[in-house]
Structure formats: C-alpha cells, structure tokens
Amino acid sequence: MSHPELIVQTPRGSSIQKTEDGQFLVCDAENQCQFTRSLYLAEEELGGIERGYAFPYATNFRKHLS
C-alpha cells in the first residue's frame, strides 16, 4: 500500500495529503486529521487550523470603536 501524496506542509506543521481514493487528508501539527472530498475544502480546513478559527466565526467578530 502506498502512502498518501503530500500536497502541502506549512511551517507550523499542518498538511494536506491526497489519498489513493481521491480524498484529501488535512492534519494539524498534533496529527489530528480529517478527510475532505475536495482540494478546496481541504484548503479551507487548513486555513482554519492555521488561523485558529474558521468561517463563520471570523465574520462575527466586530471591533468596538470607543
């Protein structure tokens, strides 16, 4: 059995790998992983891991001007 193909690995240790069945495996630095069905969804998940939050949380944040 061959290993998943590494697509990207970030400086923080997160990664996206393509599996033999065409899915994408997204892992954080602690090796907690999840599968997605498209590269777009994998990139979105990776962005959330790297930022520490994901949509819709980013859009709900409002800075109060006092």
Outline of this structure?
By secondary structure, the chain is of the alpha+beta class. It has helices spanning 39-51, 57-60, and strands at 5-9, 15-18, 24-27, 33-36. The protein has one domain (5-60).
Task: Give a structural overview.
The chain has 66 residues and is an alpha+beta fold. The protein has one domain. The longest helix is centred in the last third of the chain and has 13 residues.
Keywords for this structure?
single chain, about 70 residues, alpha+beta, 2 helices, 4 strands, globular
| Mean pLDDT over the residues | 83
What is the beta-strand fraction? 25-35%
Kindly give the count of domains.
1
Q: What is the distance, rounded to the nearest whole angstrom, between the alpha carbons of the first and last residues?
A: 60 Å
- State the helix count: 2
Low-confidence stretches: none
Major pleated sheet:
4 strands, antiparallel
What is the N-to-C succession of helices and strands?
A: EEEEHH
Using the CA coordinates, give the radius of gyration.
Answer: 14 Å
**Any idea what the shape is?**
globular
